[in-house]
Amino acid sequence: MTSARLSGSNAPPSAHTKLLDDRRFRVLLPDEDWGRLPLATWRRFSKRVADGDSVVYVGIVDEAAFSDFGWWFAQAARLIGGPLPTGRDIGVPMIVTVTEDGATGGQTWTRICARKRGFPQVIHSAKRFAGPTGLEEYVGFGVSMALRIAVEGQTLTFRSAGYGLQLGRLWIPLPEWLTPGDLTVTHSDLGEGAFRFTLDVTHPRYGALIHQSAVFRETVS
């Protein structure tokens, strides 16, 4: 894997953006764990914009790796909206937009990952603060994933805790053979307004499938 140097600015939020106190992530953790987070991480996950407003993070992909099975699984997942990265390019920009969803009380996430050739990949998902773990992510066609949140060292970690299909009010668990396995997302503060985001997918039978890492700065709102 190869690293690329981060470039970008760290501009403050625009004047029209109203920041609100957000306890939605905070209530999912014990007080002791929340207190171990770096101040910058605490602030980032305690900030909420008004319904319909967005926060934008701009970064650089510095690591990307796939097993053969992982790459093909990511391609197949495009049938439900492409929730997994599909490119191996590094040194390319990634833009993440988090928009408040007033209808559900959750967040809409859009990830744009540039490619050295061809069109960028766009990944859409929606986070809802509901379900048995208090946090769910929907990726398209009713497919959802429950997430458990934890603090490991000073890193905020999100781990999959089951996959399902939402049909109206009915939630149907998906069999293991239809899922990618264990998904882990980490958020590590790097200081000076930067943080690292990683995504890892590990299958119980096929091992490590997908790894992606990017370094971000919050730039505009």
Question: How would you describe what is shown here?
Answer:
InterPro entries: DUF4166. Residues 37-216 form the DUF4166 domain. The protein is mainly beta and 221 residues long. It has a single domain (20-219), classed as Beta Barrel (Lipocalin). The chain contains 3 helices and 13 strands; from the N terminus they run βααββαββββββββββ. Strands 3-4-5-6-7-8-9-11-12-13 form a 10-stranded antiparallel barrel. It has a two-stranded antiparallel ribbon with strand order 1-2. A hairpin with a 7-residue loop joins β5 (106-113) and β6 (121-128). The radius of gyration is 17 Å and the shape is globular.
What's a concise summary of this model?
By secondary structure, the chain is mainly beta.
